[in-house]
Write a structure and sequence with these properties.
The complex is a heterodimer of chains A (about 180) and B (about 525).
Chain A lengths: L1 H14 L19 H12 L3 E7 L5 H9 L11 E3 L8 E5 L4 H13 L5 E5 L1 H5 L21 E3 L6 H18 L1
Parallel strand pairs in A: 1-2, 1-3, 3-4, 4-5
Helix pairs in contact in A: 2-6, 3-6
Chain B lengths: L1 H4 L3 E6 L2 E5 L2 H13 L3 E10 H4 L1 E9 L6 E8 L4 E3 L9 H11 L2 E3 L28 H9 L17 E6 L11 E7 L2 E8 L7 H6 L3 H8 L7 H16 L5 H30 L2 H22 L8 E2 L2 E2 L7 H23 L2 H7 L7 H6 L5 H5 L6 H4 L20 H24 L18 E7 L4 E8 L5 E7 L1 H5 L3 H5 L7 H8 L3 H5 L1
Parallel strand pairs in B: 2-5, 6-7
Antiparallel strand pairs in B: 1-2, 3-4, 4-5, 8-9, 9-10, 11-12, 13-14, 14-15
Helix pairs in contact in B: 7-8, 9-10, 9-16, 9-19, 10-11, 11-16, 16-19
The chains are: A alpha/beta (about 180), B alpha+beta (about 525).
The complex binds iron/sulfur cluster.
Chain lengths: ~180, ~525
């Protein structure tokens, strides 16, 4: 593997190029090519940077862990120019998980209002879509769309990191067709 | 004391559970006696049995020390809906009694803190969802969600004195974590007092169980707390199976045991990595995350779910994990290697270890009194593990000892996890060596009318308990769930007292409690 890399570096020097291809062995994502569209989308629409604020509106926490997994070195979502930020004031998009429990309803609304416009809302996970297994419980509001306007849905319980990435890609397509 | 011991009447015996009915005036004495004798308060709950026998009932479940048995004290409440609070003598009952007050409207007399626990201010007063005749108007539901919490200063405990200031944090936090509100009273940088206000993620789970059949309930139990999905589902299924008198096969037991340990492993390693995020050790965090991801991908290959969902069913399991023995062995081998590497790196990083030592100390005495469970208990010197104390599944065949540490700090909690992760690895390898008899699942009969039973196991965070009761048609009358986080949240304020505010995330990560599991 290392000798391959050295070869590549030498090639770059002679060819005056700056790229090093990722060696096959290090590739963990099987469908990496599909993601180039995502990168292009972010480049075009958000100027190479998409800032997401994740809001847990009463999820079981599995959806959050999948978002956390997106930042680990294997999925490394930051390489696409996407990152999770600490404040809604810094965010282009809210990624909401959970069925929106009644006791989180107000906090979610306030977070939404604190996000600068135009704000995109992504409902992530079956709970966020229609409150999933919690449908009908007195303590939930049956989905994010009942509380704030939603632009896009990613179903799954929880959606895997790859499914979230694929969802983001579709979202890009939807947004670029809107323009 | 001794006298009161005789004033309880054995009303029912079911497997290792003994139910004793007591009179109101003896309730506190009997419970206190059991606790003094070394019994651990496992859970406490109420039921609305007015349609069955005209009473509400309180159940207090104790583990009998040194024996695989539970003493369950039952107190019927008919006209007078109050009972003597246990909290004065048994502090571990603190939150249970407040919860029962919110959910059933049964009032603990002489409880030192009778504020609401589960419901926030806008929830209508005198409304108790777990009562069978409970109804709520759409109007009230709307107000509950929309109206801002009235800011009554008396609601939070206040610390007075020179130089004390309050820092309110949450419910929406900076990281990708669950919601909860924390109110710090600090002197300079030092935390003097912390009051958490939780239950933002309250989803009415226990009530929701009542509207499902027992077999549908598995799906809900899996979704109480994401990273303990499998343990919750196992405890729930065990409870239902015990109630129905079903014996699951050896094979099903083996699959469950194996997956419980896989769940423990990915959590413990992930948690050790996450503690690094609290000290800013990026490399440790990244390494932990990579190992965890490998295990999650293994879970996915084994069960089709990264959180081991969809395997447990009432009566056994749906998937034969032992078909993948080779894959598990290979992955575990690689993981063991990387994990040892990670621990070597962490223990050799002085700047990391120094932050962990003497931070977030939870004394053994407080841990015992408050009924702390799991990793947090064992790190404070309490030798308690439900896998050992009430051996279930194949745990009586596996050799292991609960790992304890004495110091109760963040370091101790990390080291307990490290020891348990290694123990899980060896258990997994041992389990894979043998073959197991029987079908994956057995048919389970309808539950006998008004029967009930406990189910339990050890999640990565600590013990989880389910108690189920069925009606004449074999449908749930009551499903009580008690997640480990419910026991451990009340002690976080004790552990952070005297620490600096910037160390709070570190302390919090070392406990790694679930909000969703606690809030239900
Ligand atoms: S969609 Fe599933 S994983 Fe996500 S919060 Fe809901 S129950 Fe949990």
């Amino acid at each position: 593997m290392i000798s391959n890399m050295i070869k590549q570096i030498l090639k770059n020097i002679t060819g005056k190029k700056n790229v090093i291809e990722v060696p096959d062995k290090l590739k963990i994502l099987p469908d990496e090519e599909h993601l180039t569209d995502l990168i292009n989308g972010i480049d075009r629409i958000f100027g190479r940077s998409l800032r997401i604020r994740q809001v847990d509106a009463g999820s079981c926490n599995a959806c959050e862990w999948e978002c956390t997994a997106l930042v680990n070195p294997i999925y490394d979502i930051q390489r696409f120019g996407i990152d999770f930020v600490a404040s809604p004031r810094h965010a282009d998009m809210l990624l909401v998980t959970g069925p929106v429990s009644r006791q989180m309803e107000l906090a979610l609304k306030k977070t939404y209002l604190a996000t600068p416009e135009p704000r995109i809302v992504l409902a992530c996970g079956d709970c966020a879509v229609d409150s999933g297994v919690y449908k009908g419980s007195y303590a939930v509001t049956n989905g994010v769309a009942n509380v704030i306007p939603v632009d896009f849905y990613i179903p799954g319980c929880p959606p895997t990191p790859l499914q979230i990435l694929a969802g983001l890609k579709q979202l890009m397509e939807k947004l670029s067709s809107r323009k | 004391m001794e006298k009161s011991y005789h004033r309880k009447v054995l009303i029912k015996k079911h497997l290792n559970e003994e139910y004793y009915e007591v009179m109101r005036e003896d309730f506190r004495d009997v419970c206190t006696y059991l606790e003094k004798k070394g019994g651990i308060l496992r859970l406490m709950f109420a039921t609305d049995e007015r349609q069955i026998n005209g009473t509400f009932r309180l159940y207090v479940v104790f583990s009998v020390p040194g024996k695989d048995a539970f003493s369950i004290i039952v107190l019927p409440l008919k006209d007078d809906l109050t009972y003597p609070s246990l909290t004065v003598n048994i502090p571990a009952a603190h939150w249970y009694e407040r919860e029962i007050k919110d959910m059933f409207g049964l009032f603990p007399v002489r409880h030192p803190d009778t504020r609401r626990l589960v419901f926030h201010d806008p929830f209508p007063a005198d409304s108790h969802p777990l009562r069978k005749d409970w109804k709520i108007s759409d109007e009230d539901l709307k107000t509950w969600g929309e109206v801002s919490a009235i800011k009554s200063p008396s609601d939070f405990l206040q610390v007075e004195g020179e130089g004390i200031y309050e820092i309110p944090v949450g419910p929406v936090h900076a990281g990708i974590i669950e919601p909860g509100h924390f109110r710090f009273s600090a002197v300079g940088e030092t935390i003097f007092f912390l009051e958490p206000r939780l239950f933002y993620t309250h989803k009415g789970t226990e009530k929701h169980f009542e509207g499902m059949s027992f077999s549908q309930g598995v799906k809900l139990a899996e979704r109480v707390s994401g990273t303990s999905s499998f343990s919750h589902a196992t405890a729930y299924c065990l409870a239902v199976e015990r109630m129905c008198g079903a014996e699951i096969t050896e094979k099903a037991q083996a699959v469950r045991t194996l997956l419980l340990e896989l769940e423990r492993l990915y959590n413990h390693i992930g948690d050790i990595g996450n503690i690094c995020a609290g000290t800013g050790l990026a490399l440790g965090y990244a390494k932990g995350a990579v190992i965890k991801e490998r295990l999650m991908q293994l879970n996915d290959r084994l069960t089709g779910s990264r959180y081991l969902r969809g395997v447990n069913i009432v009566g056994g399991v749906a998937k034969d994990i032992f078909r993948h023995t080779e894959d598990i062995m290979k992955t575990i081998d690689a993981v063991t290697h990387e994990y040892k590497d990670l621990m070597k790196f962490l223990l050799g990083t002085v700047s990391h270890i120094e932050r962990l030592e003497n931070t977030g100390v939870l004394s053994g005495e407080i841990a015992r009194k408050m009924g702390v469970t799991g990793v947090a208990a064992r790190a404070s010197g309490i030798n308690d593990d439900v896998r050992k104390a009430h051996a279930h599944l194949l745990y009586d065949r596996l050799y292991f000892e609960p790992h304890t540490q004495a110091r109760g700090d963040v370091y101790a909690r990390m080291m307990v996890r490290a020891a348990e992760a290694e123990c899980s690895i060896s258990m997994i390898n041992t389990l894979l060596e043998s073959s197991y008899k029987g079908e994956l699942s057995v048919a389970v009969d309808k539950a006998p009318a008004y029967s009930c039973s406990l189910g339990y196991t050890e999640t990565p965070r600590g013990s989880v308990f389910y108690w189920v009761m069925s009606d004449e048609q074999g449908k749930p009358v009551r499903v009580k769930l008690r997640s480990p986080s419910f026991c451990n949240w009340p002690v976080v304020p004790f552990a952070v007292h005297g620490n600096i505010v910037p160390d709070f995330p570190l302390c919090n990560k070392s406990f790694n409690l679930s909000y969703s599991g606690c809030d239900m």
